[in-house]
Amino acid sequence: MQWHNVEQNTEVWNELRTGKVTASQFGCLMANAGRAFGEPAKRYAIQIALEIINGKKSDSDSSYTNWHMQRGHEQEPMARMLYEIERNVDVTNGGFFDLGDYGDSPDGLVGNDGVIEIKSVTAAVHFAPLQRGSFDPAYKWQLIGHLDCTGRDWVDFVSYCADFPENKQLIIYRLLRGDYEEDISTLRTRREDFIHLIDETMCIIQRG
After folding, report:
1. What is the CA radius of gyration of the chain?
2. How many domains are there within the chain?
3. Contact, 116 vs 91, CB < 8 A?
4. What are residue 22's DSSP bridge partners?
5. Rounded to an integer, what distance in angstroms lies between the CA atom of residue 74 and that of residue 68?
6. What's the average model confidence in pLDDT over 147-168?
7. Res 207: pLDDT
8. CA-CA distance, 82 to 87, in Å (whole number)?
9. The domain that contains 124 carries what CATH number?
């Protein structure tokens, strides 16, 4: 594993991620776990295969931003600051964890043991984990990917919505590595199978 101290969404960051399976997409490949890969995973395999062959980000990369994504990027610094105040910690740059065929960009590092994943969301999305009393399951495999790729002991899922009362604007749920060892093992197996799918896809594309 190699850690790069780079800012997210920069040209250098994008270059480091080119041709690699990233934790933000682990949910895609984990869908239907134990069975054949679905169409979204197959499309993602094509994207990664083309990036490896061409040595640049694929045009099929989901790099376009909509209003909700832009809003999230803009509000993330506020969520980070509130988290630092709430937990009395300093959050440092998450950078990029490079593990060869795959990698991970957590939203921040906390000390030597933890990472955070920040979601700046709409009121309805923020209400769901508050009602559920747990993290948003849509991000389960990204969170577990943080634990796996960084080797750290815990990850905090941070949901932020400025529309809520001050004491409810920030919701924090911690996942401890020890509670998810079986899921980490499942992820590793499925990811290895997915990397084989990428190799097979490359062979088909390059077949003479």
Report:
1. 17
2. 1
3. yes
4. 103
5. 10
6. 96
7. 87
8. 9
9. 3.90.320.10
